Amino acid sequence: MDWSKAKTILIVALIITNILLAYVLYINENSKDTTLNDEFIEDVIRLLKNKDIEIDTEIPKTIPSLLSLSVEYEINSPEKLNKDFFNGNGTISSKGEGLVEIKHNNELISIINQKLIIYEAENQGDKYNITSQEEAIEIATDFLQERNISTSDMKLSFIRIVNGIYNLEFTKQFDDIYLETTFTNIQVDNTGVTKIQRNWLNTKDFGDKSISISSAPKSLLGLLSMEEVYGRTITDISICYYFDPERHGYSEDPREVQQGSTMPAWRVQFNDGYKVFIDNN
Predict the structure, then answer these.
(1) How far apart (Å, rounded) are the C-alpha atoms in residues 181 and 265?
(2) What global pTM score does this model have?
């Protein structure tokens, strides 16, 4: 074997490999999303500040993608709610226009279009002496569990305390990612749980394709045209599964929608609990 010739071929091959590797690295470097650059992010922060929008959280520097997720609304049966809340002793009455009520003593459940439930109670006398958020959360979650409402997929996303009244906002989580828009909001004071509003989604199957979304810095620019968020402070920016029948064009009447597929969106939460969802639509 001609070792000198073989050595020359090997050196040439290594040079070509290095050139190709350098080219690939160059292409990858120049194909990066420039909206993730520090300079762009600083410009975004400055522009938002000009609209009196502050950012008190990290801005994600990745471009995530999510598989589409099939979801369906939790359908609420009056008979089941009557059994779970009142041991079947409540009085069920239809009020028309998709409204059903269940009355039992000083408690009332309103069911709207089978999806939204509103529980209200006029409690008499204090049963608790709540001194911390943790106590209020425990009272709320115990109340739900005693009425066969699972709390395993719920995460506390915001809490507001006004004059001794704790307003707890829970959002559904799936695989550690928020699923919006869905909520269980609970009002608690020393008399116990006085109000619940719940509109919940259940998950079904994943789609076949992964859906990408614009970077968080680029998406945040959409806030510049939203006067309702001027003067607020952003406290959380995270990717979420997002289902909005009206926005995603499922039906002219969103009340008729029972199921559909989510899209990825940036979930932007503000210091007062207000939320904005920014997707690619």
Answers:
(1) 11
(2) 0.81
